[in-house]
Specification:
Blueprint (H helix, E strand, L loop, with lengths): L3 H7 L13 E3 L6 E3 L43 E3 H8 L3 H5 L4 E5 L4 E7 H11 L3 H11 L4 H13 L8 H6 L1 H6 L3 H19 L4 H9 L3 H9 L6 H28 L9 H7 L6 H17 L2 H20 L4 H23 L17
Helix pairs in contact: 15-16
The structure holds zinc ion.
Length: about 375
């Protein structure tokens, strides 16, 4: 099994075993890595092998390498060349000095090549970069700027050189292209030109209107839509949004005035209030009456606990009558009975009140 745990313990002399992770799970090497305890700084130490006899065949028939294995037996080991160790594991010559090396004459290259044990190189790299996760990070970063990305950066320096990288303009017009080349540089130019158009169109609106759009989170929405080409007639769209917002403000003022007149406060958590603000319902008088009723139920009666009891009763009844049902069927039956249950709870909540003491809007529950 090719994982770090294996490497770590095979090279146990590099560590105090108790300072290591108690468990390190590394599947497919360097993918899903989990630690159960923290990484402690450990140092790679070159192993000093006994080079008097081959530790595999126990003979001196062939030259003994620095790994304590003869040149015949060593072929069973997995080696990596110095060039590959540097490229794949981001090590340098100084790092490689720290490892046992097997120098071998290469007939094709007509030169001596340096070979290192693959597991030594892995372990060294992991330690050098502070653990598997840090190593992974390092690799990702060092591969971060690919040739194609560099090309995109170069193109952007031409068409977007004065744009601050952290600005909304850059985010909207350039960042997709920078990340994955999406749309090509042509789309960047197109977006930048739409951005400029948007700025020009905004000049036609008052500061007050623009402020409204910002407050209601519509400005960046419109901008994104236009720059990406989803919204065509932007001026009309902006005007439309402003009208909606102003209408909403007007509605909110109406609602608050009416609520206050009845001694009630505007509640953000009220569904019917929100429906009114969004224009989903227009029956303001009914809304006020419902708000008054609910206020009365919750502040003057034990409606909440009565309702809870009725709902529990309804749930029990469903179970008794139908047995155990699939969730969606149960939900249908529950919803069907809910309005009746609520009405029963309301009636019970004011049952003991004398009619003369009840406000007129509550009389319908008697
Ligand atoms: Zn041997």
């Amino acid at each position: 099994m090719d994982n770090v745990l294996y490497l770590v313990f095979e090279n146990a002399q590099c560590f105090q075993p108790e300072t290591l992770y108690s468990t390190v799970t590394v599947s497919k090497f360097f993918k899903d890595i989990t630690y159960s305890t923290g990484w402690k700084k450990v140092y790679f130490q070159k192993e000093n092998y006994d080079t008097s006899t081959c530790s595999k065949c126990h003979l001196n028939k062939y030259k003994i390498t620095s790994f304590g294995i003869c040149t015949k037996c060593i072929n069973t080991y997995q080696f990596i060349t110095a060039t590959d160790a540097k490229k794949e594991w981001k090590l340098n010559d100084d790092d490689l000095e720290e490892l046992n090396v097997y120098e071998k004459w290469h007939n094709t290259y007509r030169k001596t090549i340096r070979l290192f044990l693959r597991k030594d190189v892995k372990l060294y790299a992991i330690i050098k970069y502070g653990g598997p996760a840090s190593y992974l990070n390092f690799i990702r970063k060092s591969h971060g700027i690919s040739k194609s990305k560099q090309k995109r950066i170069d193109s952007l320096t031409v068409v977007a050189k004065d744009i601050d990288k952290h600005s909304t303009k850059f985010q909207l017009c350039c960042s997709d292209y920078l990340a994955n080349g999406s749309g090509g540089i042509k789309s960047v130019k197109q977006k930048l030109s739409r951005w400029d158009d948007f700025e020009k169109i905004m000049l036609k609106f008052t500061d007050e209107d623009i402020e409204l759009l910002k407050t209601y989170n519509e400005l960046s929405f419109l901008q994104t839509g236009f720059v990406n080409g989803f919204v065509v007639n932007i001026e009309e769209e902006i005007q439309h949004k402003i009208t909606i917002i102003k209408n909403k403000i007007q509605r909110k003022n109406n609602l608050i005035t009416k609520l206050n007149a009845c001694g009630l406060q505007f509640r953000h958590d009220s569904k019917i209030c929100r429906q009114y603000l969004d224009g989903a319902r227009d029956d303001l008088d009914t809304i006020i009456e419902i708000m008054q009723e609910m206020n009365f139920f919750f502040s003057q009666t034990k409606y909440q606990s009565i309702l809870n009891r009725h709902i529990q009763q309804m749930k029990d009844d469903i179970r008794i009558e139908y047995g155990w049902l699939p969730q969606d069927e149960y939900q249908d039956i529950f919803e069907y009975g809910l309005q009746t249950t609520i009405l029963q709870a309301k009636k019970e909540a004011i049952k003991s009140w004398s009619i003369s003491k009840l406000p007129s809007y509550m009389l319908k529950y008697r």
